[in-house]
């Protein structure tokens, strides 16, 4: 498995700050899959005290999590201040530790370096956000650190076939720009990373949602409103020339279906996994638990 191209974290934050006011209306896929992920709580017997909504965006599912678990401290976390401001009226810059007397509503923070004490959360929820991290193994290790033992990670992410029609158009019209496109991680690789990070038996599945656009302008407006234009660090710099832009739009137009619509596929990866007690110390020594020996004797 080759590493995906490195993303420009500063540009990601800038794009999401700029997109905050329009994001909720444009992110229809994120809303729908987040709702479907919420339904998976129906088969779990949970009474969480602390829930982290990591990559919360404008807080659509933060509110729904608070409604589902009214006794929990649900904390909205995003690297974009404008998003966090929408998710909660009084965001905090940092919280060193969480207790019953410290019920922060929101944090502005990088999801790979959560300002959360070790084993603070019962649930870590992340809807369509983890693909903005440059180092997924490090991200999952950090999320594992923030969760209590027996805590659950719930997430969605785009899979490799996301925007495959756009990939084809770029390949045909502007092949030199292919390296500027995002690369998304396969669900099997995500599952392997979760196990390596200390999660047990991750449950992974996927589906494909197809969006339809009447015009290329509507497609581009939708992507911009979601902050979803290229943030690849080594992307080709500079705007496309009018001629190159026309070539790209012509390639998209050539893909119209029998109903005259421009279709875009979004592969959705769903996953959840439980944090289990570590099998080794940080020094690499094996851990043998007394209670396990007693059960066997």
Helices and strands, with pairings:
Layout: H1 9-26, H2 28-39, E1 50-54, H3 60-68, E2 73-78, H4 81-87, E3 106-108, E4 121-127, H5 136-146, E5 147-158, H6 164-173, H7 187-196, E6 199-213, H8 216-225, H9 242-253, E7 262-275, H10 290-296
Parallel strand pairs: 1-2, 1-4, 2-3, 4-5
Antiparallel strand pairs: 5-7, 6-7
What does this protein structure show overall?
By secondary structure, the chain is of the alpha/beta class. The protein has a single domain, classed as Rossmann fold (3-Layer(aba) Sandwich), CATH 3.40.50. Helices cover 36% and strands 21% of the residues. The chain contains ten helices and seven strands. The chain has helices at 9-26, 28-39, 60-68, 81-87, 136-146, 164-173, 187-196, 216-225, 242-253, 290-296, and strands at residues 50-54, 73-78, 106-108, 121-127, 147-158, 199-213, 262-275. The protein has a seven-stranded mixed β-sheet, with helices on both faces. Strand 1 (50-54), helix 3 and strand 2 form a beta-alpha-beta unit. Helix 1 runs parallel beside helix 4 (81-87). The chain is globular, with a radius of gyration of 21 Å.
């Amino acid at each position: 498995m080759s590493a995906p191209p490195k993303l420009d974290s500063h540009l990601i934050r800038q794009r999401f700050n700029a997109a905050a006011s329009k994001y909720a209306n444009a992110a229809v896929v994120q809303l729908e899959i987040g709702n479907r992920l919420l339904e998976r709580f129906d088969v779990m017997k949970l009474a969480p005290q602390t829930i982290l909504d990591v990559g919360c965006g404008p807080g659509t599912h933060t509110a729904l999590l608070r409604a589902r678990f009214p006794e929990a401290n649900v904390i909205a976390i995003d690297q974009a201040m404008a998003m966090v401001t929408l998710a909660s009226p009084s965001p905090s810059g940092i919280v060193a530790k969480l207790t019953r007397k410290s019920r922060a509503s929101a944090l502005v923070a990088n999801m790979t370096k959560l300002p959360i004490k070790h084993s603070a959360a019962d649930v870590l929820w992340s809807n369509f956000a983890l693909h903005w991290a440059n180092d997924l193994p490090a991200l999952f290790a950090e999320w594992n650190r923030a969760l209590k033992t027996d805590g659950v990670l719930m997430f969605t992410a785009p899979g490799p076939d996301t925007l495959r029609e756009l990939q084809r158009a770029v390949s045909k019209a502007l092949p030199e720009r292919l390296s500027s496109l995002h690369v998304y991680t396969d669900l099997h690789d995500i599952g392997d990373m979760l196990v390596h990070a200390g999660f047990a038996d991750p449950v992974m599945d996927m589906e494909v949602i197809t969006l339809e656009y009447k015009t290329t302008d509507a497609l581009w407006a939708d992507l911009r409103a979601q902050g979803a234009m290229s943030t690849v660090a080594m992307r080709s710099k500079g705007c496309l020339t009018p001629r190159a832009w026309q070539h790209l739009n012509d390639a998209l137009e050539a893909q119209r279906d029998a109903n005259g619509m421009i279709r875009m596929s979004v592969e959705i990866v769903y996953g959840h996994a439980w944090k289990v007690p570590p099998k080794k110390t940080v020094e690499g020594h094996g851990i043998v638990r007394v209670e396990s020996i007693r059960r066997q004797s």
